[in-house]
Amino acid sequence: MITRTVDVTQELAAFLRTRRESLDPGDFGLPARRQARRTPGLRREEVAELAGVSTDYIVRLEQARGLRPSADVVEALARALRLTPDERAYLFGLAQQRPRDTDKLATTAAPPLAQMVADLSPLPTMLMNHRYDILAWNSEMARLLLDFGTLPPSQRNAMWLCLLHPEIREFYVDRERVVREGIAHLRAAWATRPEDQALTALIAECITRDEEFARLWAERDVKINGRGRKVMRHPDVGVITVHFETLTPLQDPDQLLVIYRAADDESQSALDRLCAR
Fold it and tell me: What does the pLDDT look like over 218-255, one tens digit per residue?
């Protein structure tokens, strides 16, 4: 029965029970003598053993008796029940816990997204992950900002370039705002992925090497800035103003598709001249 609001305790109980009952005991190599079952799927004690918890704990969860499993227990249940990635995310949501996905962080571009970056030409487009690592880009973005292919992978990071690359440091007309907004995004990403050592190392390097970053980081601003305007001072074609849009694919939520569009006729003309070079 659908109610006006979701009772997450009841839904957690029902979800665990239906997933348990949908499993085939034969897939778990259970002895034949244990196959005579009055109910479908695995028994509660079998799920408890697979998850490393007590049978009583599973009983109380499935009876909606007010338990809130920890993130570790949710992960163990997801493995025991062989949940799909979408089911796993749903279970974490019901338990009001956050999954630890550091082993799934995007470090390379998903092939369909890399193809989309190319297909979006002539709009300057790039693909980044949550810590601003640049994973893919098209030729228009390379002409506008920098040919990222000439850089070592460790330097293909939008924040690192903005702070420490000699050309990009002076590229943005309103540099402090760009840096401030970038730092606010990084802080939000850092809080949700505390075990991401590469992100922690990036922040530590920026704090050590750039006083402006250290000052702004200490202000603890938090903001996910997926849409906005940037004014850039290009050495070949002059000032270009763009609107940017950041899209998050449902299938690859750790990858960010960033698309630039000219904000006015003069900027479009400058982009056309730049791409024609």
Answer: 998 888 888 999 999 999 999 999 999 999 998 888 89
Q: For residue 204, what are its two tokens?
A: 């530590």
β-bridge mates for residue 137, sequence order = 126
The β-bridge partners of 230 are 242
**Domains defined along the chain, listed by start:** 8-100 (1.10.260.40), 105-276 (3.30.450.180)
Burial class (CB in 10 A: 0-12, 13-18, 19+), 255: buried
pTM recorded for the entire structure: 0.78
Say how far apart CA 19 and CA 171 lie, in whole Å: 54
Give the separation between CA 165 and CA 63, rounded to whole angstroms.
Answer: 58
Query: Which 3 state secondary structure label does DSSP give 257?
Result: strand
Angle between helices 211-218 and 175-192 (to 10 degrees): 60
CB 48 within 8 A of CB 16: no
Answer whether 143's CB lies under 8 Å from 275's CB. Answer: yes
**Whether 255 contacts 104, CB under 8 Å:** no
Q: How far apart are alpha carbons 182 and 249 in whole angstroms?
A: 20
Q: pLDDT for 85-94, tens place per residue?
A: 889 888 988 8
